[in-house]
Design goal:
By secondary structure, the chain is of the alpha/beta class. The strands form two sheets. An eight-stranded mixed beta sheet has the order 5-4-3-2-1-6-8-7, with helices on both faces. Helix 1 packs across helix 3, helix 10 packs across helix 11 and helix 11 packs across helix 13. It is globular and about 55 Å long. It starts with a strand and ends in an 8-residue tail after the last helix.
Length: about 400
């Protein structure tokens, strides 16, 4: 029997998201979330997806740590006949946020990989420790099974030095690994490839601007399937206006807040990462609520929306210039896929660049990838639902399966 299943794990500081996929056709067999790990009342929601009429199963109870969480996940999968001891399980794929420059491809995890991911904790203090915990727990549960790390930063390692370097002292930058790494890489890779497919072309033939717009948001310029620039930098704080993150600010703002506001580095970190962006501007970070308030004439919400769109347009224009020729702009993630007013506003006034949206096409809600620009538009505007779990599973399976089994 050929093992064709891949379990995808995304371990956060107090949560584990998971999906089990069959790589013969990408079918999802199960999905779920364990959240509030380590709190008094944790929650596990498991959804069987193998074709029956099974309802999601939920439980609320204390779950002390990630090991207990993964054991609970294994129990839920076993109830559906999909246990971690199944001979059909080929590998476990792990989302790892920061791989630095060392990891540009999915990688089978060993002690050396673990040490390097650990060494990167100073540039990803919120994410890499949780990713490592999930990996170590999964390795303890199935030490015989290949475990693969798929890095958020990997897709962006193709950026030229002119895009990746900050204009600071080179020796200082190299000593402290300061450069632009980019994030959301699995999403940008998947969406840029799917956009080319939507246009009936190979990725190598297409230049795409990908706009991953969720609570975290990033843009990328993709030339012929390779990232040449992206909006996030050393951390996910740089770039677009986000739900709670500021995006681009003058670095001197930090010094000003230290000197004049008597704020500590930690306080400024919290301000820029958790109390800025849309929530800092208007008190809401849900685009649906912001649009409702805009429609009711709320000026605070209107200003927040306008700032969000202004920054988005700046990046569209900048990446148009970087690419020289743009074949498509692809909107993805929660806001990009669902907020028609954001898509419309982002390209409004850019007709001279060949950009436009068809109002009727833009208003349609669908889970399918689709073109929303009119036929006459020189540049296709697309909505392409992202699928990071499938991308991780595909990269994992391609690495661990023999060449003769990869298309099983």
């Amino acid at each position: 029997m050929t093992a064709t299943r891949v379990l995808v794990l995304n371990s956060g500081s107090s949560s584990v998201k998971y999906q089990l996929l069959d790589m013969r056709d990408g079918t999802r067999l199960a999905a779920g979330l364990v959240e509030r790990i380590g709190e008094e009342t944790s929650r596990l929601k498991h959804t069987p997806l193998s074709g029956g009429d099974e309802e999601p199963r939920e439980q609320s109870r204390p779950i002390a740590d990630h090991e207990e969480a993964l054991r609970a996940v294994a129990d839920e999968l076993a109830q559906d006949g999909l246990g971690l001891d199944s001979p059909e399980l080929a590998a476990i794929g792990h989302r790892v946020v920061h791989g630095g420059l060392f990891f540009s491809e999915p990688t089978v995890i060993d002690d050396a990989v673990l040490k390097e991911v650990e060494r990167l904790i100073p540039v990803a203090p919120l994410h890499n420790p949780a990713n490592l915990t999930g990996i170590r727990t999964a390795m303890a549960l199935r030490p015989d099974l290949p475990q693969v790390a798929v890095f958020d930063t990997a897709f962006h390692t193709t950026m030229p030095e002119s895009a990746a370097r900050y204009a600071i002292d080179v020796k200082t930058a190299d000593e402290h690994r300061i450069r632009r790494y980019g994030f959301h890489g699995t999403s940008h890779a998947y969406v840029s490839r799917k956009t080319a497919e939507l246009l009936g072309k190979e990725p190598e033939e297409v230049n795409v601007i990908v706009l991953h717009l969720g609570n975290g948001a990033s843009a990328s310029a993709v030339r012929g399937g390779r990232c040449v620039d992206t909006s996030m930098g050393l951390t996910p704080l740089e770039g677009l206006v986000m739900g709670t993150r500021s995006g681009d600010v003058d670095p001197a703002v930090i010094f000003h807040l230290m000197r004049v506001g008597n704020m500590s580095a930690d306080e400024i970190d919290v301000l820029l990462n958790k109390k800025s962006g849309l929530i800092g501007l208007c008190g809401d970070n849900d685009m649906r609520e912001i649009r409702r308030r805009v429609d009711e004439g709320d000026e605070e919400a209107r200003l927040a929306f306008d700032i969000y769109i202004h920054r988005l347009k700046k990046y569209i224009g900048a990446y148009y210039a970087v690419l020289g020729r743009v074949d498509a702009i692809a909107f993805t993630a929660g806001v990009g896929e669902n907020a028609a007013p954001v898509r419309e506003a982002a390209v409004a006034g850019l007709e001279e660049l060949g950009l436009a949206v068809d109002g009727e096409l833009n208003s349609v809600r669908s889970d399918e990838a689709r073109i929303i620009s009119p036929e006459y538009a020189r540049v296709a505007v697309a909505v392409v639902p992202t699928d990071e779990e499938l991308e991780i599973a595909q990269q994992t399976y391609a690495l661990v399966a023999g060449p003769e089994n990869r298309n099983a």
